[in-house]
């Protein structure tokens, strides 16, 4: 993908990612977090930083993993983006690993949206072995972007942003991003500072939600947008005129996380309850059992939701 035109408030994270990749002893970078938080944008900006481009000198390969469900299709994708030739009597595995074995210079592979093959039914073991085998080659550095809180396999990932993964934007960066997305369509901007602040707060400074809300300002005033948000909430956070997917709909992105991490039963019930609580559950480990009468222990469900980054 092309670098996003609007990219605000992530300079520190980009620098951290670049520093990690440019150290000889650190080769594995995990960009974790919720859907719509901007993981792919971060990976692209890190990949396009001058020092990273100097180190890998055109040997950067971006793999959109939402297209692949298992190890075999991932290998096919790698062969395609690396422009490798499959000779007669050679398997795809041999072509890929012979190439990595013969490589003398550093190369970088970005596995974007890795939650798809990692969580696909019946494919995890094969994908795990593939990743670990690729990681054994000293010339290979890896970036993985993925919904959730923990990097895949037993590879010693350095997680960008700390234990909980990538955070939302700061209030100032969120406002800058909203104004940049709205562009010239937001007339008399100074008249709507308080409304923009309120909307960014209610969108919880999530980049995808900010971009999708700003599109409405191309047609209606900021005052009308606030009225739409008050009435319709997240149903307005869809990109008009396009088939809904993880990049064009907040609801689709949330549903995708629920599907990928198999959030069902009591876990889904807990998520639904937490969604009604603006401040979450303070000191949840002591007080969560008081929310429900029929069940007192919710530790397993909380762990599943934390792992999916649907809550934090």
Descriptive overview:
The chain has 312 residues and is an alpha/beta fold. It has 3 domains: 10-160, P-loop containing nucleotide triphosphate hydrolases (Rossmann fold), CATH 3.40.50.300; 171-236, no CATH class; 262-308. It has helices at residues 11-21, 39-47, 50-56, 71-81, 92-102, 115-119, 124-135, 171-182, 193-202, 207-214, 222-232, 250-260, 265-275, 284-287, 299-308, and strands spanning 28-33, 60-64, 107-112, 140-147, 158-159. Helix 8 (171-182) packs across helix 9. The chain is globular, with a radius of gyration of 21 Å. The mean pLDDT is 91. Residues 28-150 form the NACHT domain. Pfam families: NACHT. InterPro entries: NACHT_NTPase, P-loop_NTPase. This is NACHT domain-containing protein.
Keywords:
Rossmann fold; five-stranded parallel β-sheet; 312 residues; 3 domains; alpha/beta
Quick summary:
With 312 residues, the chain is α/β, with parallel strands linked by helices. 46% of the residues lie in helices and 9% in strands.
Fold blueprint:
Layout: H1 11-21, E1 28-33, H2 39-47, H3 50-56, E2 60-64, H4 71-81, H5 92-102, E3 107-112, H6 115-119, H7 124-135, E4 140-147, E5 158-159, H8 171-182, H9 193-202, H10 207-214, H11 222-232, H12 250-260, H13 265-275, H14 284-287, H15 299-308
Parallel strand pairs: 1-4, 1-5, 2-3, 3-4
Helix pairs in contact: 1-2, 4-5, 4-7, 8-9, 8-10, 13-15
């Amino acid at each position: 993908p092309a670098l996003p035109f609007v990219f605000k408030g992530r300079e520190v994270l980009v620098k951290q990612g670049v520093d990690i990749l440019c150290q000889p002893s650190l080769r594995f970078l995990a960009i974790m977090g919720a859907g719509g938080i901007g993981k792919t944008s971060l990976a692209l900006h890190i990949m396009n930083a001058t020092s990273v481009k100097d180190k890998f000198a055109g040997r950067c390969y971006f793999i959109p993993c939402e297209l692949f469900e298992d190890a075999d299709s991932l290998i096919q994708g790698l062969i395609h983006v690396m422009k490798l030739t499959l000779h007669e009597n050679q398997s795809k595995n041999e072509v890929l690993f012979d190439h990595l074995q013969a490589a003398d210079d550093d190369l970088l592979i970005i596995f974007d949206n890795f939650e798809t093959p990692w969580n696909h039914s019946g494919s995890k073991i094969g994908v795990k072995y593939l990743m670990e085998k690729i990681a054994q080659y000293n010339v290979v550095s890896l970036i993985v972007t993925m919904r959730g809180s923990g990097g895949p396999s037993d590879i010693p990932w350095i997680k960008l942003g700390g234990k909980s993964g990538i955070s939302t934007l700061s209030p100032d960066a969120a406002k800058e991003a909203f104004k940049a997305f709205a562009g010239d369509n937001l007339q008399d901007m100074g008249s709507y500072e308080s409304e923009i602040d309120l909307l960014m707060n209610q969108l919880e400074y999530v980049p995808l939600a900010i971009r999708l809300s700003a599109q409405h300002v191309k047609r209606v005033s900021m005052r009308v947008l606030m009225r739409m948000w008050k009435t319709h909430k997240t149903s307005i956070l869809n990109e008009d005129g396009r088939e809904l997917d993880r990049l064009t709909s907040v609801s689709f992105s949330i549903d995708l996380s629920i599907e990928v991490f198999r959030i069902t039963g009591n876990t889904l019930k807990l998520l639904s309850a937490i969604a009604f609580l603006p401040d979450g559950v303070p000191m949840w480990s002591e007080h969560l059992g008081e929310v429900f009468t029929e069940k007192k222990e919710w530790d397993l469900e909380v762990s599943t939701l934390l792992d999916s980054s649907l809550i934090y």
